[in-house]
Each structure stands twice: as C-alpha cells, then as structure tokens.
Amino acid sequence: MTIEEEVERGRRDGVGREENLPFLLSPAKPAKAGILLVHGFTASPWEMRLFGEALAAEGYLALGVRLPGHGTTAEDLVHRSYEEWLAAVERGYRLIAEQGLRCYGIGMSTGALLLLVLAANRPLQGLVLLSPFLKMRHPLAQATGLLRFLKRFQRHKVAGNLAAYYYDRRPVNGVYQLCRLTRRIRKVLGSVTTPALVVSSTGDQTVEPESARELFRQLASQHKEYHCFGPEVPHILATLENPRWRETFGLTLDFLQTLEQQAGAVRRVAGKSF
Predict the structure, then answer these.
(1) How are beta strands 61-65 and 23-25 bridged, if at all?
(2) pTM over 0.90
(3) Domain CATH for 139
(4) pLDDT tens sequence across 211-264
(5) How many domains does one find in the chain?
(6) How crowded is the C-beta side of 1, counted as CA atoms within 13 Å?
(7) How far is it, in rounded angstroms, from Cα 9 to Cα 174?
(8) Of the candidates 35, 61, 51, 46, the residue with the CA atom closest to the CA atom of residue 10
(9) Which of 82, 140, 222, 271 is a plausible cystine mate for 181, CB 3.0–4.6 Å?
(10) For 123, left (φ over 0), alpha (ψ -120 to 50), or beta?
(11) pLDDT tens-digit readout, 167-204
C-alpha cells in the first residue's frame, strides 16, 4: 500500500474535498518514528491534520488515514461496518511499518478504539487515546441494533465552519457499529500492554467521561497515564475547537518523547551487548 493508493481509494469512494483525503506528512530530516493518526465517527482525516502538522514539525512522520464512509456522505456511512474501518487502520500501520519505522498511534474517540484493537494484534510503541469511551451518553445507543431497521439517521448539530468535515446526520447503523466495537474493546483491554496516554474531559457531551477512566483502569499497560480536562473542554480534542489544544498536544509530545528516550536507551544498551 502507498499513500497515493489510499488517496485514490478515497476519490473513488466519492471524497470531494482535498482536506478530507488521507495525508502523509514527512519531517524535514529523517523521521524519528511514524505516527498513525485516526479520526473519529462522522469526521474525516481533516480532524487529525493539526496534530499531523505539529508532529511533522517535531520530526515525526505523520500518516492520517480515512475510515470508509467518512469524508463522503452520510448515506455512504450507513452501509459501513467497523471491520472496514479497522482494515483502513491496518493498512496505515503497514505503510509505516514497511518504512522500517517504530509506529505510534493517536486516535480521536472512535479512532482511539480502533487503535486499541490494532494494538492487541500489532506491536505499536505507544498509544495516545483522545476521548476514548466504553459508553455513549445517548440513552438509546444500546438499542440501535433494533432501531437501525426503523430509523436511518439521527440529526447532529455541527457548527457552520465545520460542516465540510463532519456529517450533521449520524447513521443509526453507524452507532450500532460503535456498540459492536465497544463490546470488542471490553474483551481485548486486558491484553493490551502498549504504553498509553488517555485524555478525556468532564465537558464531553458525546460519551461518558467516566468510561474513559474505566477504560484506563482496564488497560494492561504497565506504563499508562491519564489526564482529564474540565467542563470547558468538549469531546473533540484534536482540533482548535478544544480551547486546551496546545496543552493536549504538549501532553502528547511529552509522552512520545519519554517513550522515544526509553527506546533509545534500550538500543544503546543492546549495542554494548556481546
């Protein structure tokens, strides 16, 4: 797989805006490592672009994948499954691994959950999980297995400046896919040992913030960190809609740098072995 093939896949699927296509950002010097960036439900790669640009400026290769059904139309998303989303994340992982780079994952909401499934099967070096969840706030979320046959969409308010990057209708079948995904996450959390940073906020109106803490507790990672912002911070943490974006990125960068330093120390010790 190449990034050009993924971009072409997006165009064939009907992505009309360049900002909603997958992206690959390379640093000016040889990359320290690769970062796999995964956006959230009803969003597009644009959601992770700011993170990608900042990471590339810090010396990382940044790859933003596109989940099938996203960046096109809400009607396209109706027919997609979380397995299709996971396949796109797997392709992104392989693209980074084929370049011989250590791979970290940064995911926003649903993207964070997909990375957790990936980490249960692939050797990721670290995970940054932004607003991950095990439970959604909507009281009917768990009933979507039935409701998806009765109702196709749920209206979702999107600010005018974001309408080009997010759907204003959530496919009910898509929410059902999220329920299926969270059930899988509950089964794999105890086997995920990848170092992880979990970031959430009490101002999250989309998912239950406490479920992020529960997810954190269930992670089997020996190295794990948790940070929760206050009520001023919304669900989306990866864009400037988050008033604490710079702090969020700072937490992420510190976490990555700590892991990179540890990896460097291991390599130096290994180099002295005989």
Answers:
(1) antiparallel
(2) yes
(3) 3.40.50.1820
(4) 999 999 999 999 999 999 999 999 999 999 999 999 999 999 999 999 999 887
(5) 1
(6) 21
(7) 21
(8) 46
(9) 82
(10) beta
(11) 999 999 999 999 999 999 999 999 999 999 999 999 99
